[in-house]
Design brief:
Number of strands of chain A: 0
Structural class of chain B: mainly alpha
Distance between the termini of chain B: 28 Å
Shape of chain B: flat
Shape of chain A: elongated
CATH superfamily of chain B: MetI-like
Largest interface: A-B, 64 and 71 residues
Largest sheet of chain A: none
Number of helices of chain B: 15
Oligomer: heterodimer
Low-confidence stretches of chain A: 1-6, 284-296
Number of strands of chain B: 0
Strand content of chain B: under 5%
Helix content of chain A: over 70%
CATH architecture of chain B: Orthogonal Bundle
Order of helices and strands of chain A: HHHHHHHHHHHHH
Radius of gyration of chain B: 24 Å
Radius of gyration of chain A: 22 Å
Number of helices of chain A: 13
Helix content of chain B: over 70%
Mean pLDDT of chain A: 82
Distance between the termini of chain A: 43 Å
Structural class of chain A: mainly alpha
Largest sheet of chain B: none
Order of helices and strands of chain B: HHHHHHHHHHHHHHH
């Protein structure tokens, strides 16, 4: 029974996106980037990202599609390899914040106005009151520049909008008859929440997940520029950071490649997220607008 | 009355939370500063003395209370890297940041409100689709991409080369315009997409209500309807949005923009404190911005009540969700 409840939003999502031209475009873009990331991960694509294969700042051409950088590395290879970095960051942060947001939100919503709810609200309020980049700075300072400070900071702060939405939805569902029936036949609360309430919030979690994915990738760019982000490897953020000096000198390869990849991927994710929102919950979509703290 | 007391109590709890968080992260778990402050080959007594000065030999609660006291009296100590009083650093840099960021912040919101009204009035038609489409495109642009792109277009010989690549030598309106133009434009562009979309959603919802239909039936002009009826009734979500984007745009925005354009405001000071591990500056900035944000939220709550006594419920369950 719970399987069919969980499957319904997915089926609705696919039907909805099939009818939505822009959503379909988003799905195609995200799929292409996923294939790129999978290709890198399997070792088929972008493996030469760290090797010097040409001279310094070679112009774009058939051999190096976006030219080479200061160290003679092929910029196109680096941009392709960065798709993997983006997926890793986006997926890790989106999954972790979804779990945290669902747990806190369900707990607070199920026991609304109890002390559990008060504590959850207080934690959210505290995290929302510290400006994000300062929080990362404080965390990076405390962690002495360890590699995962960026991930941890994003996970610790990005779950609050999800939890807030889920709290309201769980409160609404708890008042409905199917939950009351489950309580009446004596099912334990954890079982009702896990099997009957949470599966009915999948649409919120899915949409919020895509929004967090976008936020995480955009945040990585800025943190990498500030020196608080990706420590080794390569990402679009690091390429853009590299390009800040080159643009003034007239070398646009890094900038064009990184911003082109980044913009296309983010556009795809945004279109997909919109289409999901329209397909899964048309009443919520335009009413509240987006509920994510979008980093600049 | 009870409502106000409860709100003030909540804010105090939040202030305890944010100060505790910054204390634990930066002071309690933060790196040991002893040897950074000592010369070469310190004697055991010197080490003991510095550790006593830094309070490393005292218990958690005592040190946290000291920290709260220092924040309350604004006795923020001295910068590790320059030796300047942190209070003086803040007094010097905060006005620069406000002058840099406020115009972009206000324009980003005002332009978005105008565009959102146009889109909401022409809902579903071509103009609406163009505006919402451009918003999504704007939301897909990274702040860094906008800044680098604008710099290449406006500040280098590869574009029109009208503005400085970086710097801040302001001594009048002309030079202010010269140095602030490109940063302001980047701030407007980065916030315009998200803002327009949000305000459009608010206006569309409001425009569907029956009193709007009545106003149209009475022949009120589009401008009157959108400003007098739709905008006036959307003030609560608007204020929430603006307030909650303050830490985002002003603090985070200044961090990136000032670092990039080499402007001596709070953002660049903070960035330098991060890279140098300058704890006195960093903990002052983090704690003070968080505390002032809590205070702003409290004031906003009271403002809502002044604006509209019906608001209690809406703010109680959705106050923070709009960002």
């Amino acid at each position: 029974m719970s399987a069919s409840v969980a499957a319904a939003p997915a089926a609705r999502a696919f039907r909805g996106i099939g009818r939505d031209r822009w959503g379909l475009l988003g799905l195609v873009i995200v799929t292409i980037f996923f294939l790129l990331a999978a290709g890198v991960w399997l070792g088929w694509l972008g493996q030469d990202w760290a090797r010097a294969v040409g001279g310094r700042w070679e112009p774009a051409g058939t051999e190096h599609w976006f030219g080479t950088n200061l160290l003679g590395q092929d910029i196109f290879q680096r941009a392709v390899y960065s798709a993997r970095t983006a997926f890793e960051i986006g997926l890790v942060v989106a999954l972790a914040t979804t779990v945290l947001g669902a747990a806190f939100g369900a707990l607070a919503g199920w026991r609304a106005f109890s002390w559990v709810d008060d504590v959850a609200l207080w934690v959210k309020g505290v995290l929302d009151s510290v400006p994000f980049y300062l929080f990362v700075a404080a965390l990076a300072y405390a962690m002495q520049g360890r590699a995962f400070a960026m991930h941890i900071a994003m996970i610790l702060t990005f779950w609050t909008p999800t939890a807030r939405l889920l709290r309201a939805e769980v409160m609404r569902l708890k008042a409905q008859d199917f939950v009351k029936s489950a309580q009446a036949i004596g099912l334990p609360a954890w079982r009702i929440v896990l099997r009957h309430v949470l599966p009915n919030t999948v649409h919120i979690l899915l949409v919020q997940g895509t929004l967090v994915f976008v936020a995480a990738i955009k945040t990585e760019v800025i943190l990498s520029f500030l020196g608080l982000g990706v420590q080794d490897g390569v990402s679009w953020g690091l390429m853009l950071a590299e390009s800040t000096q080159e643009v003034i000198a007239g070398h646009f390869g890094n900038f064009l490649a990184a911003s082109g990849f980044l913009f296309t991927f983010l556009l795809g994710l945004n279109l997909l997220s919109d289409a999901l929102q329209d397909a899964l919950d048309p009443t919520m979509t335009r009413r509240r607008g987006r509920m994510i703290k979008a980093p600049a | 009355m009870f409502y106000f007391l409860r709100k003030i109590g909540n804010s105090l709890l939040l202030i305890i939370g944010v100060t505790l968080l910054s204390f634990v992260l930066m002071v309690w778990f933060g790196p040991d500063r002893t040897f950074g402050l000592l010369g070469k080959n310190p004697s055991q007594e010197q080490i003991e003395q510095v550790r006593r000065q830094l309070g490393y030999d005292r218990p958690f609660a005592e040190r946290y209370l000291d920290y709260l006291g220092a924040l309350a009296t604004l006795e923020l100590g001295y910068s590790d890297s320059s030796g300047e009083a942190v209070r003086a650093v803040l007094a010097r840099t905060i006005p620069v940041t406000l002058a840099l960021v406020l115009p972009g912040f206000l324009l980003g919101n005002l332009l978005a409100i105008v565009l959102a009204m146009l889109a909401a009035w022409h809902r579903g038609r071509a103009l609406d689709r163009v505006i919402t489409g451009l918003s999504v495109a704007g939301m897909s642009l990274s702040f860094l991409v906008i800044i680098i792109g604008l710099q290449a277009l406006l500040c280098t010989p590869y574009g029109v080369n009208l503005f400085p690549v970086r710097g801040w030598q302001v001594d009048g309106f002309g030079s202010y315009f010269y140095y602030a133009f490109v940063p302001t434009l980047s701030l407007v562009i980065v916030s315009l997409g998200y803002n327009t979309r949000f305000y459009r959603a608010v206006f569309v919802e409001e425009a569907q209500r029956e009193h709007i239909r009545t106003a149209r039936a009475f022949g009120a002009s589009p401008l009157t309807i959108m400003t007098r009826h739709v905008l006036a009734n959307s003030m609560a979500p608007l204020i929430t949005r603006v307030l909650f984007s303050i830490p985002l745009v002003i603090v985070s925005g200044s961090l990136l923009i000032e670092t990039y354009f080499g402007i001596p405001g709070v953002g660049r000071t903070t960035f330098e404190a991060i890279t140098n591990g300058d704890q006195p500056v960093l903990k002052a900035v983090v704690a003070l911005t968080a505390v002032s944000f809590v205070v702003v939220q409290l004031l906003a709550d009271f403002l809502y009540r002044l604006f509209d006594p019906r608001i209690e419920q809406a703010v109680a369950d959705g106050g923070g969700a709009a960002v």
